[in-house]
Amino acid sequence: MEENLVTLTIDGVEVKTKKGTTILEAARQVGIDIPTLCFLKDINEMGDCRMCIVEVEGRRGFATSCIQTVEEGMVVHTHTPNVLEARHVILDLIISNHAKDCLTCTRSGNCELQTLATKFNVLDVEFPGEMTKHKIDNLSPSIVRDFNKCILCRRCVAACKNVQKIGAIDCINRGFESCISTVGDHSLNDVNCTNCGQCIQACPTGALHEKETIDDVWVKLKDPDTYVVVQTAPAARVALGEEFGMPIGTNVTGKMVTALKRLGFDKVFDTNTGADFTIMEEANEFVERFTQNGVLPMITSCSPGWVKYIEMNYPELLPHLSTCKSPHQMFGALVKTYFAQKEGIDPSKIYMVSVMPCIAKKFERQREEMKNDEGLWDVDNVITTRELSRMIKQANIEFEKLEDSKFDNPMGEATGAAAIFGTTGGVMEAALRTAQDTLTGQNLEKIDFEQVRGGDGIKRATVNIAGKDVKVVAASGLANAQKIMEEIKSGKADYQFVEIMACPGGCVMGGGQPIKSSKIRREVDVRKLRADALYSIDEKSTIRKSHENPILKQIYAEYLEKPGSHIAHKLLHTHYIKREKYNI
Amino acid sequence: MKTLEQIHEIRKEKRKELDLRVNTKADTREKHILVCHGTGCTSSKSPEILENFRKILEEKHIENVRVIMTGCFGLCAKGPIVIIRPEDTFYSNVTPEDCEEIIQTHIVEGKLVERLLCKDIDGSIVNSLDELNFYKKQKRIALKNCGVINPEEIDEYIAFDGYKALEKVLKEMTPDEVIETIKASGLRGRGGAGFPTGKKWEITKGYEAEQKYVVCNADEGDPGAFMDRSILEGDPHSVLESMMIAGYSIGANKGYIYIRAEYPIAVKRFQKAIDEAREYGILGKNIFGTNFEFDVEIRLGAGAFVCGEETALLESIEGKRGQPRVKPPYPAEHGLWGKPTLINNVETFANITRILLNGAEWYSSIGTEKSKGTKVFALGGNVNNIGLVEVPMGTTLREIVFDIGGGIPNNREFKAAQTGGPSGGCIPAEHLDTPIDYESLKAIGSMMGSGGLIIMDDTKCMVCLAKFYLEFTVSESCGKCTPCRIGTKRMLEILERLCSGEGSEFDIYRLEKLAANIQKASICGLGQSAPNPVISTLKYFREEFRQHAIQKECKTLECKALSKITINPEKCKGCGLCQKHCPVNAIQGEGRDKRVIDQDKCIKCGTCLTSCPFKAIGN
Fold first, then answer.
1. Cis peptide before A550 (omega within 30 of 0)
2. With bands split at pLDDT 50, 70 and 90, how would you rate the model's confidence at A2?
3. How far is it, in rounded angstroms, from Cα B192 to Cα B451?
4. Which of A329, A493, B96, B339 could be bridged to A487 by S-S, CB 3.0 to 4.6 A?
């Protein structure tokens, strides 16, 4: 054990740490926070920005603390006059080529460059000069790219290329003209981007952000002729509080509902109810495929980034994809039909807003298939968790002080199964709960499927349902999705059921969730804290199986007949297309 | 496929046949007309010259005369060059039309074509290569075969001890013995940094791995440098053979040579060398009947200067964007595809076979205490003999510029020399007697670099020089790290301000602060050395910078906004020559009037300066 430990000195403090630890990490262990910009733990460890430089005695030049590892007897100094001057110069140079319009930047207050400028008390740019000029690309329905704010840290490139294995963006040009762009410098909308938004989560500045659509919501809220309905995704409720200074993973469902009502929504519904419908339909589809020699494995379809990915990359595997719409689309479809009829509201007057942890949903809601026979969209606007927090702030609501409220009826009841949709493995687990009851015709007590929980990118399991072994796998992150697709394509896979989420960790880590700095991501397992909150909601729920949701029972009885019925298919299912990667 | 015995036979026979190439007293009735096919001569029609010779010889039914293409002879300024052996007659500036006369007069009549003989700087006519001052102080080790053999014929290489070192190494030496020999020779990396080559081999050998690689860095990129290019064009097999020896020594069976695509002749000849070596069974499995196997592939660079940086080069070979990696880990541990990799420059490799054949002691007897052997320089700029020179380490700059280079043209003064290209620094006249070796150059703020040596006369502005190199660095920065990407751009902007009269004294302080921090904080050698031309010009020509910044004045004519040409009325005789030559009619005065320059019209071309017989015009 001892031989794997290294002893070194950092700023006069003795540190004993494991071999292979970076100087940056070792320093953090003794409370020394070396500044970084391009570093993003496990994702981007390139040493490009040079902010983390330190002096190591006996070594020529500076060491790059974010990648270089500790050595026995090493003596490190993190803030010598030499280091400080170099850091000042580097920061000054970055700022000299950065659009300094902080007042009109979405990341003001949560910008890593701004934090450093404050820390180093940058009052003036010592080395001003020409700035690179870039056109803003806002053609994508999900992502806006403003490279006048880009600092070339390449965290977005690493997220897209290494984590997601998409490679829609990379560095083009050289030297001072270097910038991050797509193939042929086309709009992100016209290339192989899946709209997952992991690039936004990686960006330390305001160079990448979601396409904000809250202005449209404000207009509709103030229009007396429009009936504005909102639904909120499971993952949003365990992250929204972070935007108001609450600890990561705080469940703020009640406060969120109160805030939404105060904002003036006519009805505040729960996407979890939609998720219960998804389970009913998907479990039914699975049982049908499973018992009637249908195309297996069946793959989940509730992650729109993933759906776009398979359409572009594995169109030959589309028959494996469940035909179920995603929960908020199902729910939107029901609001504009069942709910409108029941309440006697003209569906064309209904404006359906979804609060999502996801920016690919902004793309999904505009897919042609998401229109009903009357030409109405299932969902009219998708806003992210971050955008909702801005609405709440703009409405002068002190979120932390709000009382809890409950979702509105008649569609406000949801199960624990639906809550865990927001984390990787959750859809699988929820579906298995319903599938096993359907197949056995019993009400089984074994409902926790721990094998598909947790932070691993790929979780394989064999579950026994009604005496039959069912091989399942839950994967999150598109690099992992690719691995599973290759297994299926090559015929090596013997799974019957596959869950895939585009974002690593699932919706809790979606592109529309509150953005956490590199420092927080280095110190805290954000995914786990948010996912634990969802599992806690599930555990505390009285009803934990979707098919036991009384609202569902009622709606099926009154309107949809049964899962997989003709009308259910019309409203709750969809189809897919082979999609070109490049539209250039 | 040739057996070792067959190769020995080729060496013996061919050597006899080619004796006239190196022996003016060779006992033969044959003559060889050698036509330089280096890039310079090729671009001034040497292939046409070669064809003409062959055609004429055929027409005249002359036998016993062969026309041979060779690599570079070095004196590029006099190209195209034709040498006739064994008598060693040196014809310069030959055109395709001259071939007839050369054949008729020289070959048929046995007389010299005097008008084509080369004139030395002192005006004396030179009959043979050895008489040229240009060659007298040179010592050719790396360039030994350049200009002697046909680089596209493996047999000619074999004739001059080619693949003998490889045979010796494989049959008689252990890898450790080879490494010890290289270490003892004192050879240091010729790419610029001067890391001891034997030590590098030893370190790379020390890393255990199933796969290791040998990489030859032929991404020569310094402006004005063409040493590696000439070696590859003139003697590709020597580099190939040395790569194999390196492979044997460190335990690698695969080599890559990374050549710039802008070197098409070098690429073609190296590929030919690989093909021939494979055909002879010299590359491949069971080389010379041993268990050693080795193969080499060419990788083409797309013209990025930064790909000459070893880790960026590796990235590029791997098919990625050419960007450097943070070191450590060094390539010896974590190189190509993560495997231990030995990277040496072309010229370094070109020394290896000679060291192994002649012994470490022989090699270390040449040069200075810490810098052994010779160094090839591409001599250019304001010097009479522009070309490729190879001198023993320790030769002074003065000897190179004035003895070998023939001094400064147009009776101008020597102002400075730039070594090491954009990574190096300038050397002023006060350091002309500095011996050229790694340590001495470093001590005066320059560096050896890969061998670019640009001479500047007193018409050159040092601020402009620094600006020129910064322009180069800014356009060649890969953009990966902040100090190099933005910092060099800011330095260039400051230099542009100084040259256009918009700078201030504070800008000099800004330059120094940026330079110091870019040097320390950049990831790779390109960024770390990018400020060097500024730092060294500031060190030796600070006053010139201050003149630009404060007086807004440039003593040369290079900074148009800051220079002013005036006529001294005391010296002007009113001859009007200046007026006659002025292209923009900026000079006023009639008859015997003393002339005056209209500063609004003057474009500072300097024509009047050179036309005045009384030295009355100055700037």
1. no
2. low
3. 8
4. A493
**Cα gap B458→B410, rounded to integer Å:** 11
Q: Check CB contact under 8 Å for B489 and A130.
A: yes
Domains present along chain A, CATH in parentheses: 2-93 (3.10.20.740), 124-210 (3.30.70.20), 215-572 (3.40.50.1780)
Query: For residue A539, what is the enclosing H or E element?
Result: helix A526-540
**Residue B483 to residue A89, Cβ atoms within 8 A:** yes
Q: In Å, how far from its chain's centre is CA B108?
A: 38
Residues of B in contact with A50 (CB under 8 A): 481-483, 521-523
Q: State how far Cα B266 lies from the chain centre.
A: 14
Instruction: With CA atoms as reference, report the closest residue to A259 among A239, A234, A230.
Output: A230
Q: Looking at the structure, do residues B291 and B414 belong to the same domain, yes or no? A: no
Query: Long-range CB contacts (< 8 A, 24+ apart) of B473-476?
Result: B473/B422, B473/B526, B473/B530, B474/A175, B474/A176, B475/A174, B475/A175, B476/A174, B476/A175, B476/B221, B476/B304, B476/B305, B476/B306, B476/B422, B476/B526
Count of domains observed in chain B: 5
Can you tell me the distance from the alpha carbon of B99 to that of B545, in angstroms, rounded to the nearest whole number? 52
End-to-end CA distance of chain B: 69
Q: Which of A62, A68, A127 sits opposite B514 (nearest CB)?
A: A127
Model ipTM?
Answer: 0.92
Identity of residue A146: D
Check whether B10 has a pLDDT greater than 60.
yes
Report CB contact under 8 Å: B481, A89.
Answer: no
d(CA A419, CA B157): 77
Q: Burial of A77 by CB count in 10 Å (0-12 exposed, 13-18 middle, 19+ buried)? A: middle
Whole-model pTM over 0.90? yes
Is B331 found in the same domain as B199?
Answer: yes
CA distances from B238 to B171, B267, B348 (A): 19, 15, 11
Residue whose pair of structure tokens reads 């979804």 in the numeric block = A354
Domain of B188? 154-364
What residues contact B278, with CB distance under 8 A and at least 6 apart? B284, B295
Query: Chain A residue with minimal CA distance to B484?
Result: A175
Of A47, A85, A178, the CB nearest to B517: A85
Secondary element (H or E) of residue B43? helix B39-43
Confidence of residue A318 (pLDDT cuts 50, 70, 90): very high
Per-residue pLDDT reduced to its tens digit, B21-70: 998 888 888 999 999 999 999 999 999 999 999 999 999 999 999 999 99
Find chain A residues with C-beta within 8 A of B490's C-beta: 93, 96, 127, 129
